[in-house]
Each structure stands twice: as structure tokens, then as C-alpha cells.
């Protein structure tokens, strides 16, 4: 069982069942496989070395173009990121350059470390053998793999959350609440500079540990206060120095659906159900309903076992996120800003699946493992794609290289994904435009249309633009790779009818989060 023994035998005793088939050697082997699988998927996606996609490109341009001091203030391109994360990436850029493998090395390191730390956390919270289920779910989570290899702070958010949760429950059994509080506070004081969501995780842990730390003594109250003050002061500094400067009206509107709408109170229950299901589905794509049910059962299991402190530490960050969304200060939904909640969700999922199995096994035997098997199978499927067909969210680097090699000096370029293209093309080139001109105002005889896309459905969004161009130009060349396209047109001298003057609207939106074809928040 778990070292913190959160489930007593009156509610569930799976250890004796597990001993029949799970020897210590088999258990250790499975746990090692889970950890290595998580590392392997992250390394495979990293080794694929895809070019920057829109959100990455937007942040990379800030890292390239701003000094270290400027990165602690307002950012360009409607971006927001913790200052120490930006400074660390700026340091990597200064030492190793702006290549993808270099700038993604920090998120990769955090992603790999988070798998190892989560294994320790699951051992402390879930216990043998069901911690293996939690570790497999975390290690093979599609979103966590994805965020571990992109130049954004979401993978770092997940790493910081796992570290704080591990310190909150204790690295070893029988560690006093006071000692745990001191460690959590010390780490959180620095962590809030690396991860904005760290303050929500810390708040949940701090409130959960408060009764045990304070007790009925004045000394306990002083210790608790002294632990919280530096975290509060540190976050206040971050708030005034960076969060306030990076607050952008477009971002607020963009995430508006992830805030509680008190103007329509009757919609709040439906909003809550939708957001919690979305969060569960983000942690385990295509398994959301099962995961959400398991989370609810896991919460009930901890409550029935009388483990309020553990429940507060594990489920508390979710509650804090909901409160932050109610205050319109931080979004709550199944999207990248909620990546830090994957660890709590998957811990509760493993606990809930354990209870579901115990309840069903009495009636259906091994078939009680079907919900667990489904969650693991779906996770393995998505994770396998990162190894077999690495995830692609736009791939303009080879496209830019092809255009550079084959274009003439008098050619023009319409780069319909501005920020990605800027990462791979010299700044200030007057031959590059970000919006398609009217047909009668195209200044070049030959022009390239350049586009990036995460999948074929998005690629075909460009079809109306290409069909429009073919009505007054002939296609001369085409280069396509997974995630990128370049088409060369040459005007054929035909007169352009007035009806064809304006290019079709294909959803190109420059200067907004999400890029040319605006990405969904959950992608």
C-alpha cells in the first residue's frame, strides 16, 4: 500500500490481490517500463526536430529580439510567460543559438524530470500496484509529451506542479507537516518566477498543511506565517513586474470562456461540467468521461478514508484553479494553461480506477479492469504516434529553405503564417508580405504563397486562395512537406475581372494567438 496509507482495509484492500501476481521484481520492471516509455516518447518527439509552430514562434521572436531586462516586462505578439523561464531560454539562445533543438532542451529536461518525480509522487499517494497505472497515464499523456518539446512554459508548469506536490506529501513517510511546509515554501518562492500557476498549487498545499502546522500553538502559527510570507512577497513582485505588464485585453477575451460568467448564473453548472470534462480529456485525450468519473470516485475514496490533508494537496490545485477562474484571474478548462493540473487529475484517476476495480471485481472478476485498460490503451495509442509519426503543428523551416533555394531575385513571397516564417527568413526583406494583395495589385510577376498547417484539414483551408490565384496566374512550382506548403505562381497576362480583385478569406489572422489559421485552445 501507499506509504501514507491513505486507504485502509475497511474500504479497499488490493495489496493482497496484487501479491498473487505482482512480485516486487515484476512491479519494479513495470514501473521502469512506464518511466522509460515516457522518456522515449519525449525524446522521439524532440528528435523529430519539427520547426516552430505559431505559438512557439511568437515566443521565440521575443526571446531573440529582446534583452534579458525587456523580457521581464511586456512581450510582443500577445504573449505571456514567466520571467525566469524567458531568461533561461534567453540564456540558451545566447549560448547555443536559436535552433529548435537548443531552445527546446529546457522544456525537454523538465518533461523527463517530471516523469521521474511523478513516479515518486504516485508511489507516495497511490501506492503499489496502482501507482503503475498513474505513472503510465502521466508518462504517455499526449499533451504532456507535446508540451515537453516546445518552447512554451506549459511543460515547465507541469514539472513545477509535480515537484511541489511531491514536497507537499513528503519525500518519505512520517515527514512532519512543518518540515514539508518549509520545503514547499522554499521551492515555491523561486518557482513562481518559473511558473505562474505555481502560486495556485502552493496555495492548495499551504491550506492543506495549515491545521497540522499551526495546531494550537503560537509557535506553529508563527512558523506557518513565516513560510507563507516569502512566497507571497515573491509572487507579488512577479505580479507587479511581469504579470501586470503582460496582461493583454486580447488574451483576456481569448480565454473568456474559461472564466465563470456570473452575469448568467444559470449557465454556471453547465460551464463547470463542460470545463471539468474538458480538463479530464486534456489529461487523457479520448478518455475524458472515464477519467472524469474516476476523478470523482478518487475524491470520494480519499474523503471516506479520512485523508483530508492528502485530498487537499492533490485535489486542491483544481479547486484553486476554479476559484481563480471565478475571479477572472486564471483560466480553468482543458487547454494548455491547465497543463499543470494533469498530475492531480491523473493521481485521482488512478485512485478512482482502483476503487472501481475493487467494486466491480466482486461481480465480474478481471473484467473490472476494463475501465483501467481503456484509459491505458488510449494513452498508449496517442503516445505511440509520437514515436511512429511525431506530432506536427506546422513545419515552415524546410519550406523556407526550398523557397530560398529556388526563388529569383525579383520574386515575391506571401507568407500567410507570419510569425513562423519570420523565424526562418531574414528580417526586413521587402519581398515578403504577410497579407495577400488584390489580384490587380500584386507587384510581382512571380510570387510564392507560403502556408503552414497541423494536418490536412487545415491544409485544404488554403484551396480557395490557390483556386483564386489560378484564375489570373499559372502554377509553376510546388513544394509540400508534413506541415508546410509553398506554391509558385506566375501571372499569365490575363486581365483581372473586378470580381476577382479581392482574395478570398481563408481565415488568415495575423497578430493574434493561434496564427494564420487560428488554433483551438485545446490543441
List the helices and strands and how they pair.
Elements: H1 15-19, H2 24-47, H3 54-65, H4 83-96, H5 100-103, H6 105-125, H7 131-139, H8 142-147, H9 154-169, H10 177-191, H11 198-214, H12 218-246, H13 249-254, H14 268-283, H15 288-304, H16 308-326, H17 342-364, H18 370-388, H19 397-406, E1 412-415, H20 418-422, E2 432-433, E3 446-452, H21 456-459, H22 463-469, E4 473-481, E5 484-491
Parallel strand pairs: 1-2, 1-3
Antiparallel strand pairs: 3-5, 4-5
Helix pairs in contact: 2-6, 2-7, 2-18, 6-7, 6-9, 7-17, 9-10, 9-11, 10-11, 10-12, 11-12, 11-16, 14-15, 14-17, 15-17, 16-17
Descriptive account of the structure:
With 523 residues, the chain is mostly helical. It folds into 2 domains: 15-388, no CATH class; 397-500, no CATH class. Helices cover 57% and strands 6% of the residues. The protein has 22 helices and 5 strands. It has helices at 15-19, 24-47, 54-65, 83-96, 100-103, 105-125, 131-139, 142-147, 154-169, 177-191, 198-214, 218-246, 249-254, 268-283, 288-304, 308-326, 342-364, 370-388, 397-406, 418-422, 456-459, 463-469, and strands at residues 412-415, 432-433, 446-452, 473-481, 484-491. The protein has a 5-stranded mixed beta sheet with strand order 2-1-3-5-4. Strand 4 (473-481) and strand 5 form a beta hairpin. The longest helix is centred in the middle third of the chain and has 29 residues, at 218-246. The chain starts with 14 loop residues before the first helix and ends in a 32-residue tail after the last strand. 47% of the residues are buried. Mean pLDDT is 89; it is low at 1-19 and 509-523.
